[in-house]
């Protein structure tokens, strides 16, 4: 038996169309309608979220897939670098960008006024966006560093800022372990030349690879979250005006300091901030780093005491208070900051979100400094930038790997033949001695 309630198609479509038409809300149906008595727009009604609502972008900023959208221009951006397979102790910082974004939700343009700086970076000249994350493999560090290096080159060498076609945007990288600094510096060096590094950390991170001794070795194994500054120095990326601040690391010996000296770093110990005072720390940084040259601010959250950053990879007792770090960051806001990062947030070790909340505040302070200083002077940009190295396809990487393996085999073959030659030489020498002892 056929149903007698079937609606014919034309009638159904006309009803559906009527339902889909926007409805004009009447004043007596709303608690708060428009001031002039007109019907409110959908944006007025439904676009006013509380800080705990909505999709997590940093500080509720507009989100763009910046690597895929070269036409979108902006001045400052957050970029997540979820990589943590170069750690020497506790992993988990691949989840750092997500955690920092979640902890930043109380920041908005409406409530973005930085009272320490007397400035709101989100309501100023700069267009600030969240660029999402770099896609990075956790399976192969060689490919991962290629992805990061090429990603930062794409973002810095192939993009123009919203305010000037002569300048690239500036980025605050959300790590990730501390090794993500190296690809960022590589790309910045192509734009600005040698970079001053202000390195807030409990550890030196200038250790040579031989400070991580192992029978097993590869070129890639030389890069980890404690050697990336050594690598940056040997690649000629860093200047002679660099600072460590907040140090309290355990050492292999005093020779670690000698290696650090050779890489042109001034050291400020964690205890200096309370023994000599925060202004002494600030002045030491300002005396070391020229204010008119490109500077990178890198903050490993373990610069803070574990009481404030338990969610990190390598804890060291006796660190700075958050207010001390924030005071120092605000006091060096006159420097020319071309990039920065907040790294080593490992949220699984801090279920109370204290570490990520501090991380979000640190990122906010770096953004504030970038924007408050104003646009960068184009005069500090290198005039003769090198051409980008061609992005290598995976098949070409495989060929390079095969060529490397063939070279290694050839090297081992030569070494074996040399060993055999030495053995033969030794045997012939013995026989020659025996012949000399035979009387004629």
Automatic annotation (TrEMBL):
Gene3D superfamilies: Ureohydrolase domain (3.40.800.10). InterPro entries: Ureohydrolase, Ureohydrolase_dom_sf. One of its GO terms (biological process) is putrescine biosynthetic process from arginine, via agmatine. Residues 397-438 form a coiled coil. The lineage of its organism: Eukaryota, Fungi, Dikarya, Ascomycota, Saccharomycotina. Keywords: Coiled coil, Hydrolase, Metal-binding, Signal. It comes from the Eukaryota. CDD domains: Agmatinase_PAH (cd11592). The keyword Hydrolase applies. Pfam families: Arginase. Belongs to the arginase family. This is Agmatine ureohydrolase (Agmatinase).
